[in-house]
Amino acid sequence: NMAKKVLNGLFSKSVEAEAKTGAKESSNHDNPKSLSRVKSLSFYSHLSDPPIEFTSEKQQTEQMDAIAISLTETDADLWSARFDALKALEQILAGGIVRHSEQQRALFLDKLRRMAITEQILDLRSQITRQACRVVTALAYELRETNNTDCASMMSHFVEKWLPALLKLSISGVRLMATQGTNCLLHLSALGGNHGYPRIVTTLCEGCVEKKVHQNHKKGCVMALTMAMRVWGVHTLEKHLSLIEKAVQEASTNRDPSVREEGRKAFWA
After folding, report:
1. Phi/psi at 92 (5° precision)
2. Which residues contact 238 (CB under 8 A, 6 or more apart)?
3. How many helices and strands (H and E) does the chain possess?
4. pLDDT score of 40
5. Is this structure's pTM higher than 0.90?
6. How many angstroms separate the Cα of 222 from the Cα of each of 129, 240, 251?
7. CA 91 to the chain's CA centroid
8. Angle at Cα 228 formed by Cα 174 and Cα 199, nearest 5°?
9. b or e along 203-216 (b: 16 or more beta carbons within 10 Å of the residue's beta carbon)?
10. pLDDT per residue over 8-26, tens digit each?
11. Which of 6, 121, 200, 240 could be stapled to 165 by a disulfide with Cβ–Cβ 3.0 to 4.6 Å?
12. Which residues are bridge partners to 27 per DSSP?
């Protein structure tokens, strides 16, 4: 099914390929053509540097604080510091910090919650926005793999916090960056698992029916909602049934052909 296709497609192409084309997404993170359960090794196969693991709480705190400081850097000439900080976050996630111990996970999530991730999603450089989307997707993947209800709830809060920025990224005038935003939304829905993110259903539905929004904003909401209906448990969506029906109906009759196409897919989801 579509959900399995999207997960299988995470990181199927290389970053080098993206550098050559410059026009379309290249990593599995950025190519939601196919998706199913993927193991950690393949999920992080694009990383050129090894995963980061901590041997003490002090070491973890020091590195997380250093990352947080780097992400607040506003000098345009020092954007690489923010890029490296985002890469380090993904390396830490790849190291299994979310799954190793409750103490490490709690400290990591507390520090991450305070970091300027939204600002990175809205950055003007595609390298930064791409890496920010990778961090967001990796966090969703790791928290899903814990099979922990509390972790699912934590991710729902993070998604709710970052959703406005991702929707704004999806309407970027730079096609590459707009695709990053839309794909990140799709991957988040696919990685929601049975619990999903009930806190964002209303926002997605409103994005489908709102008249004065960019077509890519509307399209991204429809695509994320479609994936949610295919992957999330019924208990997560049944409270919003009337909203979802209205959203699908509106998308299916939208004047933009690309939105209508996604609306029809939602109808059959």
Report:
1. -65, -45
2. none
3. 16, 0
4. 61
5. no
6. 22, 15, 7
7. 16
8. 90
9. bbbebbbeeebbeb
10. 444 333 333 333 333 333 3
11. 121
12. 13
